[in-house]
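Researcher: Please generate the 3D structure of the following complex. Treat every line as part of one assembly.
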Amino acid sequence: MKKGLFAQLPFSSRFCFNKSGTFHLFSRDPLHFMSDFRCLSTNLVSNGTSPHKLWFEFDNVNGPDDALSIYNMMIKMKPLPGVRRFNSLLSRIVKLKQYSVALSIFNDISNLGVPVNIYILNMVVNCYCSSHRVDFGLSVLGAFFKLGYIPDESTFSPLLKGLFLENRIAEAQQLFRKIVREGLCEVGNFIFGVVVDGLCKAGNTAMAIQLLRVMEKGSCRPGTHHYSTVIDSLCKDGMVDAAMKLFYEMPQKGINRNVVTYSVLIHGLSTLSRWKEVKTLWKEMIDCNIFPNVITFSIVIDALCKEGLVDKAHDVLNVMIQKNHVPNVLTYGALMDGYCLQGRVDEAREIFDSMPGRGIIPSTISYGILINGYFKKMKIDEAMHLFREIPLKGLEPSVGIYNTVLQGLFGMHKCSSVLQIFDEMQAAGHKHDFHTYCILLDGLCGNGLVEQALSLLNEIEKKGLHLHIQYYTIVMDGLCKAQKLDTARALFVDLPSKGLEPNVITYSTMINGCCEKGQLEEAKDILLKMEQRRCLLDGVTYNIIFRGILKSGEFDEATKFLDIMVGRGFSPDGATATLLCSLLQKKELNLNLLNMIEKCAPST
DNA sequence: TTAGGGTTAG
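Model: Done. Output below.
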């Protein structure tokens, strides 16, 4: 059907179809249309359809198939519909995020001689930038000038967004500066929003705040959107107090807060279990006539579940329903995960089964949550049955689902089933990703197959795939646990030759391996190297070293180390507490250390 | 241009 449609297109050879039935454009010079688009195609077929019958139907376009059907009808008309009709169709396709479809149609209409206007050119820029092809987007700028159009905010916004999306932060900043300095277009709320969002997502919240301050002094003042974006980013960076400060600054500066502003802050606070403040904010929000929506409720339900308070979360769900808010697939997913985390997978299953009756179709992630829950309860048959059900329900098993199943099977020591599923995955054309390799390496190590993990690592190297420090860290850990410290050390020493830089987890893995083998001196050497390379120690590393010293019986040294550790804001974790308890029982700790432990960690 | 889900190395 689809191929038939394209056979009628004048340039059907440019399209190809992938396995999922969607089509994409062969890579071509994005500006080739410049040479073609003025040429009028003369051999159009007319079936007499009136253009007026079509123009109102674009809202009913719900996917590439609909788009192509309408497009096919449009190009059969004589005379051809005007550029505005094509504009509306393209705009609908862009809304559906079918960028390659939009670009292909664009190429075709330009070949058919439909004149290109600035709206269409901006859409083309947007399509390239949204599909990680910002360089093509930039090259379209040339077309603007050739056609006498001046790029505007709608041209530069997607370009900036695209650069941020491709993690080309410096270039995005450079372009933004150029736009401002040279007055390339009006710099309004919209473009500021793109830059604030881009900086935040790039992890540069501090610079986003600076930009807010710059905006305050200019003609385009920051608004609710800009503040909400920055508050959210601060919360995600764990800086909730700084986020609160900005939040309280808003009314002082005459900026309204909306449900998004409240929701992101509630998210930040509830992840830190600051429930008292969540309650205050909730009340304040309603007093201000801003009402929580399905996302706000879902945020709270999710946070309660992650804290193990699934029954409370279920109460919130009931309140939500009483207040006529309709829970969606994400709300139920959060609750299902909450039950699974408590090992109450049957209750999670009840929710899952009740979803279709409530008009909600479970997503692949809903399946993933439940499959993971079953594996954690060792219910392999139920897990695999659900996995097999996914395609039967018309859903595409994602890489994430395959990863969950592979990991679950490894956890059940079903290595032969892992291979079978991995083969199936490849046969079905599903590309494995970075996580798949991590799961395979970790699963092989965890099942006593460290040598095979090493072979897989070699294979990854030989294939010239992107090497990642995490692969090596996993295998080094496996080697240490298999009493093969020498091989782990060799791998560790070789990292720089592969262009890889060890990170805090790599160092702590090796330190742990050395401590377990009683090689405290070597562990100290690695610690020294780590500090020389300015790799900051985290809580887990401090605990690993502390346990290593404790096990060596050097209690005076352990006391000194604990003092430093606590001074830097880290406290003994669960594994350390267990070790301390067993040492206490054996009465092996000295008095100084006992006093120190009591002072720093009353809970342990 | 702003908010929510599973898996993800010590």
